[in-house]
Amino acid sequence: MPVVDASVVVDLVAPDVGSDAPAALLDALPLRRADLPRDQERAFELARRYDNWPVYDMLYLALAERLGTEFITADDKLRARLAHLGWVRGPDDD
Question: Under a CB-based contact definition with an 8 Å cutoff, are residues 1 and 69 in contact?
């Protein structure tokens, strides 16, 4: 199960702001909370590694990393910053 960040959820609840892809993506996914305290520690490490990127974004990345799954974000700047990671993608990516 992929990790989906808040930018995808915003597209779902405010469809006039984003695309239709998030709705199709989330209808197909069961949702559950899976973070642990160690994910918070890792998020701080990742934030420092990525030039003090916001920790709340790195929490999603840390969780996906630990679970060994994809991280899906509609945040173009974040996706560009993490483009070297093959498991980070956008909601419209196939």
Answer: yes
- Could you give the angle at which helices 55-67 and 37-49 cross, rounded to 10 degrees? 120
Cα(16)–Cα(88) distance, integer angstroms? 24
25 occurs within a structural domain:
yes
Number of domains in the chain: 1
d(CA 11, CA 71): 16
For the stretch 4-14, pLDDT in tens is 888 876 666 56
Whole-model pTM above 0.90? no
Six token digits for residue 76: 């173009």
Domain range for 25: 3-29+36-89
Please check whether residue 76 lies inside any domain of the structure: yes
